[in-house]
Amino acid sequence: MTEHPAAHHDRLTHAVPQLVTAFEQLGAEHKALAAEAEKTTAKERRGTVNRMAECIAQAGFTLSHIVNMLATVHGLKVLGIDRQFSKDADGRDYSPLNSLGHPGETLYEAAGHLQAVAHTLGKAYTPTRKHPALARARCPQQLGTALISLKAALESVCAELAEDQDVEAVTEYTPTLTFLGELEARVCRTVPAQGAGPTADEVAAAIRANPDIARAAAATLSTMTA
């Protein structure tokens, strides 16, 4: 069954909003890193945090470029433009004037840039020898959404490349898709919030109500003041 051409465009119209989401969600992480670097006094630690912020900024810049590329690919495909040549007097292709846009080539370049974004974000959260604990998300919810959206966008782009007969792209970018999932799991883990402890009034009431608790509390206090 022949797929309707509009189905091809659906992949790009899915990828672009995912990239917009990723771009938007990186803002919170960059702002948090920049603020952390500003108040960090230790030179080496500050340098690490600054490098992380720079990687986030570079990823955002590249995402902006990719969105423009995919918008171009979508427009070329919708308009039916794909490497048409000018013609000579006999109607044959005339190559000295080059050709019109090549959506397949632009799409492949966009996939390469997506891979670069993944590697840039991975570089931001590569643990250092002296400060491995810094390799974590400051805004795990937002960064997690960005990484998930980036992965979804790359999946759509790979599907579009496969439809354009570049089936090797799926294999080529599979490690990047895996990497994005692993990065999200590693740096966006959140520590469950601890439940609130008993209030002072609740502790006092428990001591009054139970002699065993009262004796235990008295013993603890005597040890602390000894």
Do you know the CATH architecture of the largest domain?
Up-down Bundle
Summed up, the domain count is: 2
The top-level CATH class of the largest domain is Mainly Alpha
Instruction: Tell me the overall shape.
Output: elongated
Give the low-confidence spans. none
Summarize the model shown:
The protein has 226 residues and is mostly helical. It is built from 7 helices and 2 strands.
Topology:
Layout: H1 5-39, H2 43-78, E1 85-87, E2 93-99, H3 103-124, H4 140-163, H5 168-187, H6 200-209, H7 211-225
Descriptive notes:
With 226 residues, the chain is mainly α. It has two domains: 5-191, Four Helix Bundle (Hemerythrin (Met), subunit A) (Up-down Bundle), CATH 1.20.120; 196-226, no CATH class. Helix content is 72%, strand content 4%. It has helices at residues 5-39, 43-78, 103-124, 140-163, 168-187, 200-209, 211-225; strands at residues 85-87, 93-99. The protein has a two-stranded antiparallel ribbon. Strand 1 (85-87) and strand 2 (93-99) form a beta hairpin. Helix 3 packs antiparallel against helix 4 (140-163), helix 3 (103-124) packs parallel to helix 5 (168-187) and helix 6 (200-209) packs across helix 7 (211-225). The longest helix is centred in the N-terminal third of the chain and has 36 residues, at 43-78. The termini are far apart.
